[in-house]
Design brief:
564 residues; alpha/beta; four-stranded antiparallel β-sheet; ABC transporter transmembrane region fold; 2 domains
Amino acid sequence: MTTSPMWWLARSVGAHRRAFAATLVSHLLGQLATLGVAVTSAWLVGRAVAGDTTAAGTVAGMLAALVLVATLATWWEMYIAHDLAYLVLARLRGEVYDAVARTTPARRRARRSGDLSAAVLSDVETLEWLFAHTLAQSLTAAIVLTAGAVLTAFLDPALLLVSLPVALCVLTLPLWLRRRSRAHGDELRAATAGLTSDVVDTVQGLRELAAFGALDRRRELLADRARRLARAQAANASRGGLEAALTDLLVAVAAAGTLLLVVSLVRAGRLDLAHGPVAMVLAASALGPATQVALLLKEYGTLRAAAGRVHDLVAAPAHVAPPAAPRPVPPAPAVVFDDVRFRYDPDGPEVLRGVSFTVPHGATVALVGPSGAGKTTCVSLLLRHWDPDAGRVLVGGVPVDRIADLPAHVTVVPQDVHLFAGTIADNVRLGAPGADPAPALREAHLDLDPATVTGERGVRLSGGQRARVAIARALAVDAPVLVLDEAVANLDPENEARLAATLAAAARNRATLVIAHRHSTIRRADHIVLLEDGRVTAQGTYAELTADPDGRLASLLRLTGAEP
């Protein structure tokens, strides 16, 4: 059964029942005290008009007490309502983060990072209005409306003939415009996500934009996105203004109608002149809560759009299920791909077609093939970003979907290194929080102080330095399986040779899988697996595969420019 995003969010308050109850009580107390102030003031005015000042001093004291209660209750409600909102939002942010982690990288393929940023940041912040200003307030408004209607009927039921129908129209006004509200909310959501995504892309690609002289064109793109967002905001504001104007019109009609009705009832002798002001206030008490709810619901479209995006993200199923019955990985494990088949999309082509090979412990295996052959997919399956459609990927004889802490057993050095803003030491400790970064940095031949600031995405380091930080990060984990995605591609020949010797020494205690493009990397491997079009077409040592100068490996080396 599909759950409405708004209902799902409303239910999330259930974890904070006490805070919600306090919000409800404080707002109700404040509203009833405010109603009491209005009724008492009207009673005093009515008595003054009738020339009866009996007990005026006592009633004035009651009025002062009610004013104090209303003031304190309003302050308490504002404090506790926002406390409730921030508690719920904190929990919601945690759920969103867990959802992003649970669905990565599958969701990243379908959504841009800026779109995810909008869901994680701006959409969650937008929902603060729902928790702090809408839920409890709507419930108390209904109670106050009912209480006012009962008291009004006690004076004369005819007084409800104007106020109740108008209150009903005010309450249902957002429902009349709900389709337009939803459309505007969806349009605003899409425009915001588009602009956020392009801004993130622009910030991340500033160097490329400057290098290719594309900054002006990018500025035009962002300006176009901003204009779309402005149009969406204007349309949403226009509809909100229409709702507010219609609400004010209905309230004005109700006030005039109620005044005429009170005058007619006084003239007919059905209502005491001294009770006339009280009757006006009580009749208006039905309109006040209705107007308040209508104003709260005016932002329904925006709230619904934000709630929909957050709900879609949080409700997304895990792309890979957690290990049902985890098994320990034995020491000195080998990696085995056993007749692995995989496709990214159910209706798409197979990317891997029965791939089988082994990476023995203590050996280095180079996975070689043209672009699109499936090399990166093999790494993704080993890291369990996805599960194979058929076949098995095993570490030490244990399927990877049965290993509880896979990152402790398999670590990777990607070709596209991502460093977080902070120090080199922070980045090295990413997978080993308590490790001393110095030994790993020495192994990676990086002669920089661990306290050196890397900058965002490692912008303060060279490409070679970033690669060596990534290698040090992997070595610090000391996992028995190491994956190198052309980790030395950004190094000069001298540093490549030095680092290759370090990695060769480290490989003696690990099973090492290398995604190889460089001839020097391929030649150093103990075993080579040639992957073409999702199939293993040949495998063996370098000497075996190059014995025939017209063999597959030699042809591939010539094709990729890696031939010595």
